[in-house]
Design goal:
The protein is α+β, with helices and mostly antiparallel strands and 188 residues long. It is built from seven helices and four strands, in the order H-H-H-H-H-H-E-E-E-E-H. The chain has two domains: 64 residues; 99 residues, no CATH class. Strands 1, 2, 3 and 4 form a four-stranded antiparallel sheet that branches.
């Protein structure tokens, strides 16, 4: 991880963007890195979608200099889902180890919906449904585990949630990621 911040520092919007892009650059996207296109544009599109809580389609439709949503999503689908989840959670664990002290922490959970235009990549069960936004009610749903560190949320684990699985399964997966962190957690 290239950039570390301390939770007591004041981060500007530019600092947050740089931190997010540095973290995104650690995630391998074979279809992006092996092509003649600029992987930075796709990573910037992902960042903007995450920060603005918009779909990839909404970002590509409203932002000059981005690739089409179909192309962007096709490149993202070159990464095996289990590998991507493992890499992301390893990065979050490294960040948590550098920032959090040795004291016990309470984990907070939140479901995050990212609206999605298009067909399911693998099967219909991968998509969830939520309140319509950006012209669609389809979404990819993620369960995020975070702690409050100096009154600021710090994400420590994430897992995708399928539309055809009970939410309790996603909670169990997330808690497995949390249990692997190098911090002390109160017993479940």
């Amino acid at each position: 991880m290239k950039l570390l911040y301390h939770p007591d520092t004041v981060l500007t919007a530019a600092d947050l963007e740089k931190l997010a892009l540095d973290l995104l650059s650690e995630i391998p996207i074979p279809g992006v890195e092996g092509c003649g296109f600029d992987s930075g544009i796709i990573r910037q599109t992902l960042l903007q979608a995450a920060v603005d809580q918009k779909s990839i389609k909404a970002v590509t439709d409203s932002t000059l200099g981005t690739y089409s949503d179909d192309y962007t999503l096709a490149q993202l689908h070159t990464v095996p889902a289990a590998e991507l989840e493992a890499v992301v959670n390893d990065l979050l664990a490294q960040q948590a180890a550098m920032i959090l002290g040795p004291g016990p922490r309470i984990i907070c959970l939140d479901f995050v919906d990212i609206h999605y235009h298009g067909c399911p990549h693998r099967d219909a069960g991968e998509l969830c449904h939520t309140i319509p936004c950006d012209g669609t009610s389809q979404c990819h749903r993620y369960l995020v585990g975070f702690v409050l560190c100096r009154a600021k949320p710090l994400v420590v684990a994430v897992t995708p949630v399928r539309g055809d699985e009970p939410k309790s399964d996603a909670v169990e997966r997330l808690l497995d990621h949390v249990a692997a962190l190098p911090c002390r957690w109160p017993p479940r």
